[in-house]
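Box 3.1 A note on notation
Throughout this textbook, protein chains are presented in two layers. The first layer is the amino acid sequence; the second is a token string describing backbone geometry. Keep the layers aligned when reading.
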Amino acid sequence: MTTFLMIQAIGAGTTMSEDDAPVTAMLHGMLGQTIIPILVLALIVVALFAHAGLKWALWLAAAVAVQITIGILAFDAPWLGLLHAANAFTVLALAEVGAYAVAHAPAYVPHAKASMRPAM
């Protein structure tokens, strides 16, 4: 919650000390709005070609969209930072469940090739 207030203060022209480390907050925002959505889109493409895990990839895309929306809205309502943090666990859980579903595709996809083996 205080991170959003800190970024808001920087935008208003307040100077921060070296201990505040606003660069990490800016890096977090840039990665979360560019790299993560690109990786999710790549995951959707892979899921389409692999015929496995598409449902989880789409749920993950929705959770990432919610995460970005909450992150943007939290600058106007810093209390939303709590939801931003909680939703991060949802994103992590969906990514793990999706990876498990793809790794064990023959168990879930009836038309998967018999030569597919779990990635573990």
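Residues 70 and 83 are 7 Å apart (CA to CA). The chain has a mean pLDDT of 79.
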